[in-house]
């Protein structure tokens, strides 16, 4: 287990803390859907997901550049959350076995479970579910290390970190809580935190496993202006330390402010890509947003429904049996 909160840096990590260097790097990318990147950490091919007659996702090709902040934007129902669910193993593409392929940091992930995806270094944040709200802030960070509810999910997503000693786990949790200014709240129930503090906790919790890429689904939703700057600062710091950030966001001010690259989805497809300051004037983007309503938000609350939890638990049990058999 790593004993430090410093994220794993990629080959371009560190140097990309310099805005001029990021601009130079991204200026080499052709601003068009599916554009090749200089050093992609994530490559996705032919992912489709249908729900009945609706095609929620139909992504032909997408690359995410290592070490920068990429925003995934699009009107309600564009398929952003479904796309997150698919590449993190929480949902299966309709095109599975028919050309769907995605790899993270050079490793194919299309046949792996959500837990394996997390172990590969691609970690997403989760909204506080009921059971996580009833745990303290510290317990959330330790995630089931003391046999709490939600343990299976924790095991599924944080196994690399679980391999360590409890003392080290605790030190790391405290270090992260201090970084995110939640130290004082460590004994409070997570459910008592404000919207912004919850977002900070979600981020801190995800960092317990030292991800190479962090995926944030609407990190600014429900955050009051006082904490917005702090959250934005944290996201930028992660990037400056070498982490790759992929986030879904509706707030265009936030998108313009922190994104090095913007990917636009509409009706399941990637319809535009480009630097934040130019992509919003792209006719395809304007078309995608015209008439779109931004007041309904499916969010990822449904992500941890009973059926999903059950499937994750089965996956974890199967992987544990496999590991035990491997040891024997
Ligand atoms: N479990 C599901 N069953 C049926 N349809 C679904 C399901 N999940 C998503 N959809 C549909 O897939 C489409 C894409 O939804 P998705 O939530 O991925 O969009 P989104 O871009 O994340 O939207 P938002 O910005 O509102 O969160 C929508 O038409 C939605 O109704």
TrEMBL record:
Residues 1-10 have a biased composition (Low complexity). Residues 316-328 have a biased composition (Acidic residues). Residues 42-292 form the ABC transporter domain. Keywords: ATP-binding, Nucleotide-binding, Transport. Residues 1-22, 309-328 are annotated as: Disordered. The keyword ATP-binding applies. InterPro entries: AAA+_ATPase, ABC_AA/LPS_Transport, ABC_transporter-like_ATP-bd, ABC_transporter-like_CS, BCA_ABC_TP_C, P-loop_NTPase. One of its GO terms (cellular component) is plasma membrane. This is ATP-binding cassette domain-containing protein. It comes from Nocardioides flavescens. The lineage of its organism: Bacteria, Bacillati, Actinomycetota, Actinomycetes, Propionibacteriales.
């Amino acid at each position: 287990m790593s004993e430090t909160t410093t994220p794993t840096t990629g080959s371009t990590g560190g140097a990309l803390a310099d805005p001029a260097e990021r601009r130079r790097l991204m200026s080499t990318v052709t601003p068009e859907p599916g554009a090749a990147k200089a050093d992609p950490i994530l490559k996705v091919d032919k992912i489709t997901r249908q729900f009945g007659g609706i095609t929620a996702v139909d992504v032909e090709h997408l690359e995410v550049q290592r070490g920068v902040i990429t925003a995934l934007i699009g009107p309600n129902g564009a398929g952003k959350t479904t796309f997150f669910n698919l590449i993190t193993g929480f949902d299966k593409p309709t095109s599975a076995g028919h050309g769907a392929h995605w790899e993270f940091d050079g490793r194919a992930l299309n046949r792996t479970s959500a837990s394996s995806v997390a172990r590969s270094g691609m970690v997403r944040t989760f909204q506080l579910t009921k059971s996580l709200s009833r745990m303290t802030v510290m317990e959330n960070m330790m995630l089931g290390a003391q046999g709490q509810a939600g343990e299976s999910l924790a095991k599924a997503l944080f196994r690399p970190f679980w391999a360590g000693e409890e003392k080290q786990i605790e030190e790391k949790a405290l270090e992260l809580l201090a970084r995110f200014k939640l130290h004082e709240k460590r004994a409070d129930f997570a459910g008592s935190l404000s919207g912004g503090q919850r977002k900070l906790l979600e981020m801190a919790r995800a960092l317990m496993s030292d991800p190479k890429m962090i995926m944030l689904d609407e990190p600014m939703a429900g955050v009051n202006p006082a904490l917005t700057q702090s959250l934005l600062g944290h996201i930028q710091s992660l990037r400056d330390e070498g982490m790759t950030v992929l986030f879904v966001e509706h707030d265009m001010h936030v998108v313009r402010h922190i994104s090095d690259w913007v990917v636009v989805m509409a009706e399941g497809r990637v319809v535009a890509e480009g630097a934040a300051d130019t992509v919003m004037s792209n006719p395809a983007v304007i078309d995608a947003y015209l008439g779109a309503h931004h007041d309904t938000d499916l969010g990822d609350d449904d992500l941890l429904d009973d059926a999903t939890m059950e499937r994750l638990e089965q996956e974890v049990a199967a992987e544990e049996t496999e590991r035990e058999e491997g040891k024997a």
